[in-house]
Design goal:
The chain is α/β, with parallel strands linked by helices. The protein is built from 8 helices and 7 strands; from the N terminus they run βαβαβαβαβααβααβ. α3 (about 70-85) runs parallel beside α4 (about 105-135) and α4 runs parallel beside α6.
């Protein structure tokens, strides 16, 4: 299926590794220009830019920035628009996943997780819709959440679960606000994926996670990226405010 993303410009936070990298590649394969945001590791982002340009004959740039900082968010948008002239799609993928049970969790860890995983998407969404509304432009936002938003965490990630539950609520609220203006806001809830962020958890508790997944396997990031890319396209023209379950049947919601 042609997703008609040629001539579109996508901004992907946390785009240099893991799911973000897979999303950037999927969007580029469909013809979209991609702005790859990263926070601290420039080399993987630059390597991805080169891959998109050489292997896919696509357009891409890398942009450093911390999504929890307002000035960085504004700079990320400005740099993307200076390069490509516009933004059509925002993918809020950047996130952190520290481990500590609530009784051991520090106030700083709690604040850091919510800053990146909830305040960051809020700042990015707000900047996007302000710019789109000022230009009377349509747009699409896809927020990456988690089944933990609905099930909580049993493995020491209550802060992450709380941030993702908040992001689901933000997705629904913003979708309601923006629907009259042609701005679509959806979310994808991936299950466990083979990523750097999940590597330690899978090394120590792979069977624990497999036992909860009806399909009986851990996801490849490309499988989730395909769903994100679909929601970023006009093929999802009657979907807004939704959270798509991409968990191998674990959530079934």
């Amino acid at each position: 299926m042609d997703l008609n993303l040629r001539e579109k410009v996508a901004l992907v936070t946390g785009g240099s590794r893991g799911l973000g990298r897979a999303v950037c590649l999927a969007l580029a394969k469909e013809g979209a220009a991609v702005a790859i945001n990263y926070c601290s590791r420039a080399v993987p982002a630059e390597q991805l830019v080169q891959q998109i340009e050489t292997e896919l004959d696509g357009r891409a740039i890398s942009i450093a920035g911390d999504v929890s900082r307002l000035e960085d968010v504004q700079g990320i948008f400005s740099r993307t628009i200076q390069t490509f002239g516009k933004i059509d799609i925002l993918i809020n993928n950047a996130g952190i996943w520290p481990t500590a049970f609530v009784e051991d969790m520090t106030h700083q860890q709690w604040n850091n997780t919510l800053a990146v995983d909830l305040t960051g998407p809020f700042l990015m969404c707000r900047e996007a819709v302000r710019r789109w509304r000022a230009e009377d432009q349509m747009g699409r936002i896809v927020n990456v959440v988690s089944p933990a938003a609905f099930r909580g965490s049993t493995t020491g990630h209550a802060d992450y679960a709380a941030s993702k539950a908040g992001l689901v609520a933000l997705t629904i609220s913003l979708a309601r606000e923006m629907a009259p203006h042609g701005i679509y806001v959806n979310a994808v809830a991936p299950g466990m994926m083979e990523t750097d962020m999940a590597r330690d958890a899978l090394d120590h508790s792979r069977q624990h996670y497999l036992n909860r997944i009806p399909l009986g396997r851990i996801a490849d990031v490309a499988e989730v990226a395909n769903v994100v890319t679909l929601l970023a396209s006009n093929r999802a023209s009657y979907v807004t405010g939704a959270t798509l379950d991409v968990t191998g049947g674990m959530l079934m919601r």
